[in-house]
Amino acid sequence: MSSQIDSANLLSRAHELVELARKAGADRADAVVVRSRSHSVSVRLGKVESTDASESDDFSLRVFIGNQVASVSANPGFDLKVLAERAVAMAKASPEDPYAGLADEADLARTYPDLDLYDGTEVSSDQLREAALAAEAAALAVSGVTNSAGAGASAGMGGLVLVTSHGFAGSYAGSRFGRSAGVIAGEGTRMERDHDYDSRLFFADLDASEDIGRRAGERAVRRLNPRQAETGRNVTVVFDPRVSRGFVGHIAGAINGASVARKTSFLRDRMGTQVLKAGLNVTDDPLKVRGSSSRPFDGEGVSGRKLAMIEDGVLNHWFLSSSAARELGLKTNGRGARGGTSVSPSSTNLELEPGPMTPEELIRSIGTGFYVTELIGHGVDMISGDYSRGASGFWIENGELAYPVSEVTIASNLKEMFLQLTPASDIDRKFGVAAPTIAIEGMTLAGR
Q1: Which of 14, 64, 182, 283 pairs as cysteine with 149 (C-beta 3.0–4.6 A)?
Q2: Same domain, 301 and 343
Q3: Assigned domain for 171 exists
Q4: pLDDT reported for residue 342
Q5: Residue ranges in the chain modelled with pLDDT below 50
Q6: According to the model, what pLDDT value does residue 272 have?
């Protein structure tokens, strides 16, 4: 990845696009350029299956005429003037949106920090291929592994340029490197599959391919010969960190300001009340140096700050963009994420802070329960909080993982689950959503 982002050229084109929109009749406008570069290699059984590379610069323009808004997007090579005129014509024909608009000028970032998000290390196709092959070979070397589901390695970057008609202009870029492996253990109807992966901003921080492959193989073998657990109520369910990150994502969804404004969140009336156990904290930090989801400013040019979204178990903040904040009678907190031509609230580096017990101590304290390593299906109702997911993992007996379990369903309601949540100490903060092992009491398990 020889260059981060041609900011001077892209900023110039974005400025020109905004000016042309103003000349065409827009009251206000902003232009975004999203640059992406990616290169990946996938292998299976010692042979390359695919080598992919892509490059794109995607331009988006939003225009406002009073409370009417329209957005258009295009690839490089388009006529700037035609695009601007088309956007203005669309806005004139659009219904009014009382909450639409650019961020308030007073909220715009005037300066923003270098968050060290870009690594210019050049990774060749040969290096990607060798990394993928090494991961697969290490996985296949694990006793009990019988086949490969494939392995891969990738390198890429993404950049964003934003220009607004009321004075903001900025850009940033971030890199991304990844390795993964998936394998199958067992034979015939007794086969089990599992995987492992790593993703980092900086190439040197990646886990070794051999470690990723070995972990993938060991996880698949551990799942062999599963049983089906007995149906029961008031079961304590422990979520492996790979699963608990998704669970913390439900917290993020429930405190998204757009969902609250649409009344599609089960926490919409819980601001300032206890939603987690006392002592538990959930933070969100867009300005974390080398953070997986860091950004010096959001999709509207607003610089956020670290927030205790939930502090001592009490809900303190929604994730807010400017439009969601206006609808709720609040002020944006710099969480507006650009998604194509639209802006919506989003978390950045979201963390459920860890507890004092190690995972082993937490499992010992439970005695009997269910340790989940994989969830199946999408049985989560974010309006009511009802939760029902297929699951597999390991039965906990006498405070230890005893045997693999599959084909069960776990169910409860997220409101109760949040209040019964206990985190362990093993958080890995390299992910955009970071969470340790967590235990949740009082769930229903449907088995045999």
Answers
A1: 182
A2: yes
A3: yes
A4: 85
A5: 1-3
A6: 98
pLDDT digits (tens, 9 = 90+) for 278-333: 999 999 999 999 999 999 999 999 999 999 999 999 999 999 999 999 999 999 99
Domain membership flag for residue 2: no
pLDDT at 339: 81
Q: Pick from 312, 329, 350: which residue ends a domain? A: 350
Task: Verify that 236 and 270 share a domain, yes or no.
Answer: no
Which structural domain, as residue segments, surrounds residue 165?
A: 7-219
- The verdict on 275 and 343 lying in the same domain is yes
pTM of the complete model? 0.93
Q: Do 60 and 88 share a domain, yes or no?
A: yes
Same domain, residue pair 318 and 434: no
Give, as one character, the DSSP assignment of residue 432. S
Q: What is the pLDDT of residue 188?
A: 87
Q: How many domains would you assign to the chain? A: 3
Same-domain check for residues 123 and 202: yes
Distance CA(335)–CA(324), nearest Å, equals 10
134-191 pLDDT tens trace: 999 999 999 999 999 999 999 999 999 999 999 999 999 999 999 999 999 999 888 9
pLDDT at 5: 63
Task: Tell whether 1 is covered by a domain.
Answer: no
Q: What is the pLDDT of residue 1?
A: 43
Q: Which pair of tokens denotes residue 339? A: 């998604």
